[in-house]
Write a structure and sequence with these properties.
Chain lengths: 242, 240
């Protein structure tokens, strides 16, 4: 379902296979396990690491496994609830994160891409798409919080959530949703890794990095259940650094 | 410490111009913060305020060197005084303009953004949120300055999470700074004063300016208001 490798200072998490990488319990559990390994490895590796999440095939991720949920509302809610801690793991990860959007990213898949600090996307194929409005599903609160945090231009947020606009890479870049556009999947992955290496080379203290990430997106972090450190704790850290 | 060595105050028409003096980094230690707050308080009766600096730096942030040698209970005064200065600027009954004549880093950058308008030297100097590089976390009210004043998610990420050094042209393009001015320090100051004079000429009721400003940035105001010079229970103000 997913593999994890380390290339120098960069951890590469790959959603494997040609399928839709639907976020059902098995894949979510695998991803959480992989992200936990990254966090643990980072602790021993010291400052200066980064994560790239990439996918094989035509899809980055087509969202929650609504096929498994079927018409069962409780099952759908289960999946919504299961994805939330993965989002939290990514938002709390003590290193920069880059999503290599190598294929379609829709609904929960788009959310997964947004949980990363940076996005590199292929130009030739694939769209970012919040399908919920078209299929008649309301948005879980933490989904909304994430989109409101990361897509701050009102008309962009409207187009994505309220119009179900399908974004190709170039338009997504113009809207500030994607940071770099590459011709195809191989270049996208390479560029994402290159960006991750540049970020890792800054040798940021991972705990500080994650703390600053929480400072800039406090509502999104709160919505996925992350509790921000108090000022008191931050000041203790500051005093220890003088 | 004599405050007149730290900043000067002059009136140019309706504009109250405060200049951080000397060729140094204008590190924000308690003495300089106190001097700036006094200078801000002395703006009563003016139509607009400009904060500028001499030399290569607008301000390079907090005085870490001072803080590392100061007794623990005094370190906090730096944060408390800075928080109070932000409150004073937010509550000021006149428009405020930061003349970014040189580098503005960390708390220096925060100080810039606490003003209504920002005019920056075009060819030299940059805004730089150095905390991520220096390994320093952002206390809540300080992060709030950036959440309110840099609303764009990408700009906030690049400035705070990537520690980009932003020169004026880029800062203007991103909407973080209002205008870039060619020339030297004096040209930037003159442009900021001209802008402030234009704002003063609108003849706005100062109290209304202050109330509307506090309402425009309510999250920031709520987090700093108890530290301002006019805070109701100044004596009972929470100690940092």
């Amino acid at each position: 379902m997913c593999t994890l490798e380390q290339r120098g200072r960069v951890f590469v998490l790959t959603l494997t296979g040609d399928g839709e990488h639907r976020l059902g319990h098995p894949l979510i559990a695998s991803l959480r396990s992989a992200v936990a390994s990254v966090a643990a490895a980072a602790a021993s590796a010291g400052p200066g690491t980064a994560l790239v999440t990439v996918a094989e095939g035509r899809f980055f991720s087509n969202g929650l496994d609504i096929g498994w949920a079927g018409t069962s509302r409780p099952r759908l809610q289960e999946l919504v609830d299961a994805l939330r801690p993965l989002a939290a793991d990514l938002l709390a990860l003590p290193m920069p994160t880059v999503a290599a959007v190598t294929g379609h990213a829709s609904a929960g898949g788009f959310l997964l891409a947004l949980c990363h600090d940076y996005r590199v996307m292929r130009a030739d194929r694939g769209v970012l798409y919040m399908s919920e409005i078209d299929i008649g599903l309301p948005l879980p609160p933490y989904f909304v919080a994430m989109f409101r945090a990361k897509i701050t231009a009102a008309n962009a947020l409207r187009d994505v959530l309220l119009r179900g606009r399908k974004l190709r890479a170039a338009e997504a870049k113009e809207m500030g949703i994607v940071d770099a556009v590459c011709p195809g999947p191989a270049e996208t992955a390479a560029e994402a890794i290159k960006l991750a290496e540049q970020l890792a080379a800054r040798k940021w203290d991972g705990g500080v990095y994650a703390s600053i990430r929480m400072s800039i997106f406090p509502e999104a972090c709160k919505s996925v259940g992350i509790v921000e450190e108090s000022d008191e704790e931050k000041r203790k850290h500051f005093a220890s650094r003088l | 410490m004599a405050t007149q060595n730290l900043c000067t105050v002059e009136r140019r028409g309706r504009v109250h111009l405060i200049t951080l003096t000397g060729a140094g980094e204008h590190r924000l230690n308690p003495a300089l913060l106190s001097a700036i707050r006094s200078a801000v308080a002395a703006s009563a009766g003016a139509g607009a305020l400009v904060l500028a600096a001499e030399g290569k730096y607008f301000s390079n942030g907090f005085d870490q060197a001072w803080a590392s040698t100061a007794p623990r209970h005094l370190q906090a005064t730096m944060g408390g005084e800075f928080r109070g200065l932000v409150a004073d600027l937010l509550a000021l009954p006149m428009p405020t303009v930061a003349a970014v004549t040189g580098h503005a880093a960390a708390a220096g950058c925060g100080l810039v953004l606490a003003h209504d308008a920002v005019i920056m030297r075009g060819s030299r100097g940059f805004l730089y949120m150095s905390e991520v590089d220096a390994g320093l976390k952002l206390v809540d009210f300080f992060a709030e300055v950036f959440r309110e004043k840099v609303p764009d998610a990408v700009n906030r990420r690049d400035l705070l999470l990537r520690g980009d050094r932003m020169a004026a042209p880029e800062a203007v393009r991103r909407g973080i700074v209002d205008k870039a001015v060619d020339g030297g320090v004096e040209d930037v100051v003159n442009a900021a004063v001209a802008e402030a004079e234009k704002l003063a000429a609108r003849g706005w009721d100062g109290e209304v300016v202050a109330e509307i400003r506090k309402a425009a940035w309510p999250n920031l105001w709520s987090k700093v208001k108890d530290y301002g010079a006019d805070a109701p229970a100044a004596a009972a103000r929470p100690r940092l």
